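Long-time lurker, first post. I've been practising inverse folding by hand and with some scripts of my own, and I keep getting stuck on stretches where the structure tokens seem ambiguous. Below is the full token string for one chain I'm working on. Before anyone asks, I'm not after the true native sequence, just a reasonable design that respects the backbone. If someone could post their per-position residues I'd love to compare against what I wrote down in my notebook.
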């Protein structure tokens, strides 16, 4: 293999380019009709009542926490096996993230670790469907109902994921999605919030754009064909600059049409890896559950330290030398210096997450990866462990 196999590469074609060009030529590139169309299309795909586009999943999490009533001094229970934005969104409010360790087989938050952490300060549970595997949402929702807690779903990896035929993001009070450049659906940068509560939807929709009562493109709209006038806006909420724009939304509309096709490609790659890498001193995320649809956003492998003296970092170096790009998803958040300083986390805080974060890596699984490339990657991994 001469060219490097890129770990994360968006699948973008002429359809996206043509639609973006059309938006640019329209002379309106901010939040407008195309953004609204993307929201409606996404809402219909997810079978949710409401959808609000934003400029990142971090923005989606932040707004959802605020409008779920999380305030300064409150506690939010979440997972340690996640990206920094999950923790940042809680900290930005002035709330405290409380970590419930993961299930070492699924790598998702373990429901049995949640209930014992609930105090009078607990306001919400923020779960992450890691790599596209849904959490044990029924157990989590039962706990939330018992203690009257809000549930926010971080679905950054899980656009296609379902439980019993129902899309994730629809179980809690809000579902938050990422459209970052390496996600299953990309708009370059962007995100979405879905919910079923109309008041929640209305507040988030206003707050994501400075708290304005009307977006710029709606300020000059005819109430009828024969009457045109300018309508002044009001500021009704303390808001943020979190809106998506039509350029990004145009890409999202086309990407949404390709979602199922790309999911099938990733699924095939996923099972090539599982088949060809068996019988090595590595572990995989357990995903074989009834009535679960995995999004196949990431293929995670874990170097089994009980079966080999070789380590993850040396495997990464070896693969890079062989032209294979890989990722780490993720180091545990308890390793991050600012979080250690602010929340007094250490190596003993969440031992399951610490072990996973020290020994996991992610293989390329985007739709541009060819079968021969996946087989080459497997060959090189086997070579590493057998040399």
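-- Answer (accepted) --
I ran through it position by position. Result:
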């Amino acid at each position: 293999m001469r060219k490097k196999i890129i770990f994360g590469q968006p699948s973008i074609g002429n359809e996206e380019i043509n639609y973006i060009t059309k938006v640019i030529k329209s002379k309106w590139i901010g939040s407008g009709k195309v953004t609204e169309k993307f929201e409606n299309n996404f809402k219909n795909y997810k079978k949710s009542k409401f959808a609000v586009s934003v400029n990142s999943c971090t923005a989606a999490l932040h707004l959802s926490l605020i409008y779920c009533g999380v305030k300064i001094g409150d506690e939010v229970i979440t997972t340690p096996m996640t990206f920094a934005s999950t923790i940042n969104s809680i900290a930005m409010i002035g709330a405290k993230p409380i970590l419930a360790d993961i299930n070492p087989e699924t790598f998702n938050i373990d429901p049995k670790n949640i209930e014992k952490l609930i105090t009078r300060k607990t306001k919400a549970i923020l779960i992450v469907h890691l790599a596209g595997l849904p959490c044990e949402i029924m157990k989590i929702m039962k706990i939330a109902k018992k203690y009257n807690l809000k549930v926010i779903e971080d679905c950054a990896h899980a656009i296609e994921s379902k439980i019993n035929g129902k899309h994730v993001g629809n179980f809690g009070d809000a579902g938050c999605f990422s459209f970052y450049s390496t996600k299953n659906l990309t708009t370059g940068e962007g995100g979405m919030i879905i919910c079923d509560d109309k008041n929640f939807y209305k507040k988030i929709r206003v707050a994501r754009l400075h708290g304005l009562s009307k977006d710029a493109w709606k300020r000059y709209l005819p109430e009828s064909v024969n009457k045109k006038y300018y309508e002044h806006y009001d500021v009704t909420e303390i808001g943020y600059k979190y809106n998506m724009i039509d350029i990004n939304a145009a890409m999202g509309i086309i990407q949404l049409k390709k979602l199922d096709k790309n999911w099938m490609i990733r699924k095939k790659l996923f099972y090539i890896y599982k088949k060809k890498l068996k019988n090595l001193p590595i572990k995989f995320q357990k995903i074989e559950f009834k009535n679960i649809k995995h999004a196949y956003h990431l293929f995670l492998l874990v170097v089994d330290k009980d079966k080999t003296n070789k380590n993850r970092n040396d495997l990464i170096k070896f693969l890079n030398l062989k032209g294979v790009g890989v990722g780490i998803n993720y180091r545990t958040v308890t390793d991050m210096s600012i979080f250690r300083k602010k929340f007094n986390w250490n190596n003993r805080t969440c031992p399951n997450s610490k072990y996973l974060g020290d020994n996991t890596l992610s293989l390329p699984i985007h739709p541009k990866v060819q079968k021969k490339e996946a087989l080459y990657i497997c060959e090189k991994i086997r070579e590493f462990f057998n040399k």
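A couple of notes from the structure itself: The chain has eleven helices and 13 strands. The two ends are 19 Å apart (CA to CA). Happy to go over any region you disagree with.
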